[in-house]
């Protein structure tokens, strides 16, 4: 699986990273596939389905970000950066390196 290294859910930072990745993918699908299908192909169901999935992933990302801020002492501005990134296409992918390093630090600290 090409994205197996990103799609791990075994630690809290890994869950946040995987959710950010999936949310970014769903946003691209919504903007690049579902919306053209709706407006150019007359298929509004595409936006309904992909939009719902994206909404769930967006809320999950927000929840996991707030959880990380509360339980792992992440700063308010760290959370704001993730929130802003979730609104800009491709921006959650730009955060992947930082989220990967956070996961690696978590693993080192816990042995």
Descriptive report:
- This protein has helices at residues 12-41, 44-71, 76-85, 91-94, 96-110.
- With 111 residues, it is mostly helical.
- It has one domain (12-110).
- The longest helix has 30 residues, at 12-41.
Please render the helix and strand layout as text.
Elements: H1 12-41, H2 44-71, H3 76-85, H4 91-94, H5 96-110
Helix pairs in contact: 1-2, 1-5, 2-3
Secondary structure: helix percent: over 70%
Largest sheet properties: none
Report the sheet-strand fraction: under 5%
Number of helices: 5
> How large, in whole angstroms, is the Cα Rg?
15 Å
Q: Give the domain tally.
A: 1
Give, in order, the helices and strands: HHHHH
Structural class: mainly alpha
Tell me the total number of β-strands.
Answer: 0
Low-confidence stretches: none
Termini gap: 26 Å
| Overall geometric form | elongated
Q: What's the average pLDDT?
A: 94
Structure keywords:
111 residues, mainly alpha, 5 helices, 78% helix
Write a brief caption for the model.
This protein is an all-alpha fold and 111 residues long. It has helices at residues 12-41, 44-71, 76-85, 91-94, 96-110. It contains five helices and no strands.
């Amino acid at each position: 699986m090409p994205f197996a290294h990103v799609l791990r859910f075994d630690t809290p930072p890994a869950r946040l990273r995987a959710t950010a990745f999936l949310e970014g993918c769903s946003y691209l699908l919504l903007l690049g596939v579902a919306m053209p299908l709706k407006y150019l192909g007359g298929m509004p169901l595409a936006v309904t389905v992909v939009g719902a999935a994206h909404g769930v992933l967006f809320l999950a990302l927000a929840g996991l970000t707030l959880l990380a801020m509360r339980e792992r002492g992440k700063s308010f501005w760290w959370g704001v950066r993730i929130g802003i990134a979730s609104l800009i296409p491709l921006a959650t992918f730009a955060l992947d390196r930082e989220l990967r390093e956070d996961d690696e630090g978590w693993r080192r600290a816990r042995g």
